[in-house]
Amino acid sequence: MVPRVIFGRGSFNQLSELLAPNRLSNNAPFIFLVDDVFRTNVNITSRIPIAYQDKIILVSTAEEPKTSQVDELVEDIILTSKERPSGIIGIGGGSILDLAKAVAIMLTNEGNAEDYQGWDLVKNKALYHVGIPTISGTGAEVSRTTVLTGPQRKLGINSDFTPFDQVVLDPELTNGAPKDQWFYTGMDCFIHCVESLHGTYLNAFSKTYGDTAYGLCKEIYLDGNLTKKETQDKLMMASWHGGMSIAYSQVGVAHAMSYGLSYLLGTKHGIGNCIVFNHLEEFYPNDVKLFKEMLEKHNINMPVGICKDLSEKDFDTMIDVALGLEPLWENAIGKNWKKTITRKKLKELYSKM
Ligand code: NAD
Ligand code: ZN
């Protein structure tokens, strides 16, 4: 679990006092990994409390985080810091939050990021790390994983050392998020809840968190009587609770198949989940219906036909990635999932997308 979290509009202003007690020395900088979409956004960049040798590194999120990108950032930080940094602070969406977690881990663990993709492979406690989301939905601010694309696979570094030491939830920071992205990233949260609540791993914790976040998503995306501020506040809470729900259980069919799209085509997580979920009536009938209503209500035109020109080899690659995520299928379908989730079945589903 994340041991420390603050929530509230304007809470970003408390960052300086939160960091101060964690500074190891004047030569041990805080490194701020910031989405480069904020390059010209003085409302965020000018409020980052820089002191001593602290450094802001602007990172592009045009592509989702890669293991090689983590290794390069770690090398750059080691080469340009006088001493091991005091901490890593990620400011951005799920991509930046995941990078911050992975960099913090790799600054205290030997080897390359790809060596740690999997479950509980991290040996040493990560460097102090802080997460500050600027768009809501992924739950990356609360989860015990950091999802990375490596040379072999797209898989998280799942470990007890992955979660942030401190999270700052300031809904005001989500002000500039583009509408489509707001929808897709928010739907990641909705889909987390659906997959957790309909999974075989469900338990009292995942259900309680999942029910809460699911209710908030319906209020935000369907009921439509909320102000912009209420929407931002509630979506930030939904993201957290949706993340907690899967922390206690697992995601399901949409995520497994969306990882395949992402690995082959580079489709980003939020939109990829939506593209897949739109075709999962047979697994989650009521929620796919609700999802279609949400699409219509918010005038979202999703891409179609993204798999139409793919070769047999391409389909095989996506199917291999999807089938490799065994815990997701076991959660979604049950222990005997291999009886129904065949290569043929997945090819049929991918072909519709
Ligand atoms: P993202 O971080 O890629 O950001 C999406 C887009 O929104 C980017 O173009 C970014 O620049 C922009 N953006 C973000 N905040 C903004 C703001 N306030 N104003 C203007 N633009 C803003 O997208 P995401 O959906 O938040 O995260 C997706 C990533 O999260 C994927 O890499 C996925 O694998 C990962 N993820 C991780 C977990 C986890 O538990 N660790 C869970 C789900 C997803
Ligand atoms: Zn997700």
From TrEMBL:
Domain named Fe-containing alcohol dehydrogenase-like C-terminal is located at: 184-286
Q: What CDD domains is this protein classified in? A: Fe-ADH_KdnB-like
Per its UniProt record, what InterPro entries does this chain match?
ADH_Fe/GldA, ADH_Fe_C, Alcohol_dehydrogenase_Fe
Per the record, the domain of life is Bacteria
- One Pfam family assigned to this protein is Fe-ADH
Using the record's annotation, list all stretches that form the Alcohol dehydrogenase iron-type/glycerol dehydrogenase GldA domain.
4-171
Which EC number applies? 2.7.7.38
Q: Name one GO molecular function term.
A: metal ion binding
Q: Which UniProt keywords apply?
A: Nucleotidyltransferase, Oxidoreductase, Transferase
**Protein's name according to its UniProt entry:** 3-deoxy-manno-octulosonate cytidylyltransferase
Task: Give the source species.
Answer: Jejuia pallidilutea
From the broadest rank down, the organism's phylogenetic lineage runs:
Bacteria, Pseudomonadati, Bacteroidota, Flavobacteriia, Flavobacteriales
